[in-house]
Write a structure and sequence with these properties.
Pfam families: FMN_red. By secondary structure, this protein is an alpha/beta fold. The protein has 5 helices and 7 strands; from the N terminus they run βαβαββαβαββα. The longest helix has 16 residues.
């Protein structure tokens, strides 16, 4: 069964609600197994065992979170050759400006030559029902692509 790895940094209730919507979105797709890992604990073995990845992070000082940056620092060289073409999606949550975080993730996923299979999702402020539905759709879209 295809395996979707969800690598997330979830430091607040708002992001926890987003993560729960991710789980719901993956569950909407038959025959895909989700492995959910906090970015500070995910490693190369998790990534190498996955058929696709969904990245989630808050915007922090105009960049991805240090936790997600740590994940990329950890996996970059061990996975550089083995994960070319890996399907991925990404969500970023911020107070008001996620552009720098999305750019930083685009740079590293581009260097890894991963394949973006869903539009990046930017969430700002309090997440309402429409935002959480967009998260479910993102997760389902990535899961369906596997
Ligand atoms: C150190 C720090 C830096 C942050 N930098 C940004 C930023 O550059 N852009 C932004 O939109 N939000 C920024 N935020 C807000 C976080 O993205 C936000 O707190 C996080 O997504 C969780 O949302 P919540 O506070 O509504 O629970 C920052 C928060 C912290 C603690």
């Amino acid at each position: 069964m295809p395996r979707l790895l969800v690598v997330h940094h979830t430091p607040s209730p708002a992001l926890q609600a987003v993560l729960e919507a991710v789980r719901e979105g993956v569950a909407m797709v038959d025959d895909v197994e989700a492995t959910v890992r906090p970015a500070l604990s995910a490693g190369a073995a998790d990534l190498l065992a996955a058929d696709g990845v969904l990245l989630g992070t808050p915007a922090n000082i105009g960049y991805m979170s240090g936790a997600l940056k740590h994940f990329f620092d950890t996996v970059y060289y061990p996975c550089l050759d083995a994960t070319v073409g890996l399907p991925f999606g990404v969500y970023v949550h911020g107070n008001d400006d996620t552009a720098g975080a999305l750019t930083s993730i685009a740079k590293v996923t581009g260097a890894l030559r991963w394949k973006q299979v869903a539009a990046p999702l930017s969430l700002t402020g309090a997440s309402g029902p429409a935002d959480l539905e967009a998260v479910r759709e993102l997760a389902a879209t990535v899961a369906v692509s596997l």
